[in-house]
Amino acid sequence: MQRRDLIKNSAALLAATQLPLAARAQSGGGATLTILSHKVHENVSRGLVAGTSGGDIAGEWATRHNVKLNWVTADIDPMHDRLMREMSLRETSIDLALVINKYATPRLSALVEPLDPLLAKEPIEDFAGIPANLMSGLRTAEGALFAMPFRHATTGLHFNETILKERGITRPPRTLDELLEYARKAAHTRADGQKVYGLTVPAAAGPFAVLSFLNAFGAELTDQKLQVRANSPQMIRGLRTMNQLYKEGVLPTNYATLSIDEVITQMQTGLSAMAFDPFARFTTYNDPNKSRFPGQIKVIPIPAEEGRVVAMTEVWAFVIPKGSKNKALAWSLMRELSSPANTIRAALNGNGPVRPAAYADARLQQRLPYTKEEALAIANAKLLPSNYNAAAQAGAVFMEESQAAVIGLKTPEAAAADIEKRLAPLVRPRA
Amino acid sequence: MKKMTPAAWAMLAPMHLLLAAVIAVPSLYVFWLSLHESSYGTGLAWVGFDNYALVFADPAFWRAFWNTFWLVNGVVYAEMLLGLALALLFASGLRHKRLMFAIVLMPYAVSEVVGALAWKIMMNASYGPLGRLLQDAGIPFAWSSSPTQGLVLAGLVSVWHHLPFTFLLLYAGLLSIPQSIYEAARMDGASAWQSFVRITLPLLVPALLITVIFRLVFSFRIFSEVWLITRGGPARLSEVLAVYLYQGAFRNGDFGPAAATGWIMVAGSLLMASLYLFFMHKRMASPHG
Hints:
The complex is a heterodimer of chains A (431) and B (289). With 431 residues, chain A is α/β, with parallel strands linked by helices. Chain A has helices spanning 3-26, 39-46, 57-64, 76-87, 106-109, 116-121, 132-135, 161-166, 176-186, 208-215, 233-247, 260-268, 282-285, 327-338, 340-348, 362-367, 371-379, 391-406, 412-423; strands spanning 32-37, 68-73, 96-100, 148-160, 188-189, 195-196, 274-278, 297-300, 302-303, 309-319, 381-383. Chain A contains 19 helices and eleven strands. In chain A, the strands form two sheets. In chain A, strands 1, 2, 3, 4, 7, 8, 9, 10 and 11 form a nine-stranded mixed sheet that branches. The N and C termini of chain A lie far apart (77 Å). In chain A, 51% of the residues are buried. Chain B has 289 residues and is mainly alpha-helical. Helices cover 74% and strands 1% of the residues of chain B. The longest helix of chain B has 33 residues, at 59-91. At the A-B interface, α4 and α18 of A face α11 of B.
């Protein structure tokens, strides 16, 4: 090939590669709004999961505003790590993000836009319809709102009706004693040699589900004023009971390494009769394509002593990074997704609605048979206070000590005392 | 040795600049970070060597250190033995050599994450084929509740994954030994064992040392196998140094102690490698000694 030909051909190739870019530039295209979240938030905002009926709420908003949505998703910990690193920069490409309340620490609130001025200027429709307790962990020490709740994940007790019936149990448990009795009865070895556990809990995924169980005994890590309350007779009794269940083979042998996915597999395949997990997992457990028990796994609030029910709730909330270049658009999408009508639509897509009024919607009641139960659980739910910088570390300390007590590496008394001792310097009451 | 000309320096410069940019500068920055208190969105506050003192005073660090020490030694020496056995098998003449070669190298083509997760599923006592098999055979292997057994499983997965690398280096070393030496030994009436001890092993020492150094340094950073199989649990008892660092930096947001841990790891692996380098240097200085 002659040198002249090479230059000519290269120029033609270069021109060809630039064509699509040029065409895109001419079409205008509008602004791009980058959202960082867990994949589930994109699914519920855009109706991406087959069989859901809420539609593409965010997509409709984007079309109306001539905006291109760039949704970046990741698992919970890596997502928050990326967000914090992005927000540490003077300018970030992330315009809007969803954070879980355990990461909504003072360190994070210092890096995001205060929402009260935006609310005053362009209010969210029926803002009062979002309960104040869901926003308790989303305000600074001075009371300024820095995040807007979008999704809650509240723990319930999922049970496999078929397995319970096989074990002679005809109705779900109503008290803590019944729950423990049923778990023991349900644990057995099948004729094919397969062990079935009575109760399972994603103990390696975070403190949330284990704390829900301990709550049923009246135990808590801290009170809502951030006073450490871990070394209590209730905590010791709860840990001792869990240790007994573990020794009896009611809790899985791989309790300490159980991830969310493993708990899902155990429930879908009938290797576990009951599980503590968020209500929203109902759809996954009963997925006819994946579950061996579609329609047979039900969910109720966790029964506690004296006829009470208990629940822990986690809240995902929108934040706008201070370095965002599209704050007005980010606020506009946040308002859109927070409206009462769209809260219901997102719930129809599988979201945990932060407005209790959504549970009264007939479409939602028809789609989700547990709306009444979840509404009851939320009314009794506790949000784990996390408005201190070492919140994630405190959760890890609890997991470490509680695992040691449950699998018998430590006495419940020693574990409860050590949780209290180690948490005290980490938890600093605000103000 | 030929003297380096300015042109040679100029040609090497881009590579050196690249190495400086991707290795030296970030390493120095991490050292600088280890002398400060810092987190997301905060400035750097000078604390001198306090972060190192903090790390050395943490019982979780020492637990992770000893876990790493035993795991790394177990993994590297198991790999050396198996790698050597495989290399000898291949060198002795094997039927379907190409096919066997592909089979032996296969684990290296699998990503660490996929490999570790596959092993985790296979070893599950409830539904994993291998876990069930062990249970049915009455062999207790409680890797999810015993930290020691959890580390053993992580070690096994690491050996499975990196064995091809060890095998390749040792096999190349074996092939470089001239056949004439073995022929001479045979004529002198040496048995197979005598040939192995008197010829193969001494001549393979450089390859063995290189392999040990590589694997020690790489294994010291072991993360995926432990993180994906035990997550450092139960109760943080199977944590290794890389998991300890990860938790400190990316869970707790404490970059100072995490950076200090990083440099302690560098020092630790250098110390281990330097012992072997010393022996190698000594051997090269007096090849017959």
